[in-house]
Design brief:
About 45% of the residues lie in helices and about 5% in strands. By secondary structure, the chain is mostly helical. It is globular and about 80 Å long. The N and C termini lie far apart (about 45 Å).
């Protein structure tokens, strides 16, 4: 008996390389429902309908927290499963789908099952007839954009598995968070907020260049956009671990993420680039010099990012300050969609106090250091806005494919 379709919720979608993208693939989305449910991993945010209209035209979607994380959209019309037309329970493996088709796709991939169509490989797949031909049903799953990469082959029934990144794997799981694997060797601090932010800081991302692209300039842009998409997924998961964030209303959580996502990404690039000389570390294995940026049409972005790098290098920004500023950037929203401003201000105050406590403990020789760091946030936002404009221009030029998550987050910033 196939599972019924409960209110929309999310599950694992994974990440994938930029090769082979289409309009129907890589659709990461928030789900619809009236209550918070668990989220296995932070791999989905928002989606466009097939007609290209925004799902959140009337009101912004948001993130919630219950026993685990749940992505929820308010006031969104009921969506249908792109495979069979049943009511979609969420975005599963990249597309809106029902529980039955989600489970079917997962079983097929995990079991490495091969099907054959008894007719001509063109059976109609509907809610009533989806069981009639497994081969055509699986083909339809792939056609509408379900991603094999989203199915964890090592997940079994009976509870969550613990994953360790093998040494030979270049690109980490975007849902993985720092535990004992993290190389961080920073200062011990009495402030629990700062120490917690250090603990939940995501693992470093690694670029996965598409070697099939002959044009190196297009390859640079494609790799960068794929990288940003994966960092967005990690940012969504990271945000729920920021102390005080998950108790905000669902709408306010999404408003903060939509407002601050690029600031968070930019701050990460800047922090990675601090040890470098006039180069930008987009990832640990993806460093861009001025000439590469010029050839790829990113010269202005290179210039403004380096301006921010020099500012933070001058302050000798440390890891604890970096993770705290990142959380402050999340809370320091300029969104007009905030429902409960007092709750957001309380979150800002809590993070501000954490930074002040840390500075008093570790930089007592400079009583104004926390203020100096806070004064960098306007430049961070200005730099992030330049980055948004750059990628909006790349989108308009249409030279490279972009993941839908990145497209929709850019749309939210316009």
């Amino acid at each position: 008996m196939e599972p019924s379709s409960p209110p929309l919720q999310m599950d694992t979608a994974g990440y994938f390389s930029p090769g082979g993208l289409s309009d129907t693939s890589s659709s990461y989305g928030l789900s619809v429902g009236g209550q918070s449910q668990g989220l296995d991993s932070p791999t989905a945010l928002m989606g466009f309908s097939d007609s290209g209209e925004k799902l959140f035209a009337d009101s912004p979607p948001s993130l919630g927290d219950d026993a685990a994380m749940q992505c929820v959209l308010r006031s969104v019309p009921k969506r249908l499963c792109l495979v069979c037309g049943d009511t979609a329970s969420g975005y599963h493996y990249g597309v809106a789908s029902c529980e039955a088709c989600k489970a079917f796709f997962k079983r097929t991939i995990q079991g490495n099952i091969e099907y054959s169509c008894p007719v001509v490989n063109d059976c109609e797949i509907t809610k009533r007839r989806r069981k009639s031909c497994q081969a055509c049903r699986f083909r339809k799953c792939l056609k509408v954009g379900m991603m094999k990469e989203g199915v964890r082959l090592d997940r079994v029934r009976g509870g969550r598995q613990k994953y360790r990144r093998p040494v030979e794997i270049e690109a980490p799981d975007p849902c993985a968070y720092l535990t004992s694997h993290h190389p961080f060797t920073g200062k011990k601090t009495a402030n629990k907020v700062v120490s917690h932010l250090v603990l939940v800081e995501p693992e470093e991302v690694f670029a996965t260049p598409d070697g099939s692209l002959p044009d190196s300039n297009l390859s640079t842009l494609t790799t960068m956009c794929e990288l940003i998409n994966r960092e967005l997924l990690m940012t969504i998961g990271w945000a729920k671990h920021v102390p005080g964030f998950s108790i905000l209303s669902l709408v306010d959580q999404m408003a903060l993420l939509q407002s601050a996502w690029m600031e968070i990404l930019v701050l990460g690039i800047v922090y990675r680039s601090l040890p470098l000389n006039e180069e930008l570390a987009m990832a640990e294995n993806f460093v861009l010099c001025r000439e590469q940026c010029r050839c790829s049409g990113l010269l202005h972005l290179h210039t403004v990012l380096l301006q921010l790098v020099r500012k933070y290098r001058k302050t000798k920004l440390d890891k604890e300050e970096f993770v705290t500023l990142k959380a402050m950037a999340l809370a320091n929203s300029d969104s007009t969609n905030i429902e409960n401003l007092e709750d957001v201000l309380n979150l800002q105050d809590r993070l501000h106090e954490a930074l002040q406590d840390y500075e008093s403990e570790h930089h007592s020789e400079d009583p104004h250091r926390s203020g100096k760091l806070l004064m960098t946030l306007p430049l961070l936002r200005q730099t992030a806005n330049e980055a948004v404009r750059t990628f909006c221009q790349i989108r308009l030029e249409g030279r490279i494919p972009m993941h839908k998550l990145l497209l929709e987050m850019l749309e939210a910033k316009i």
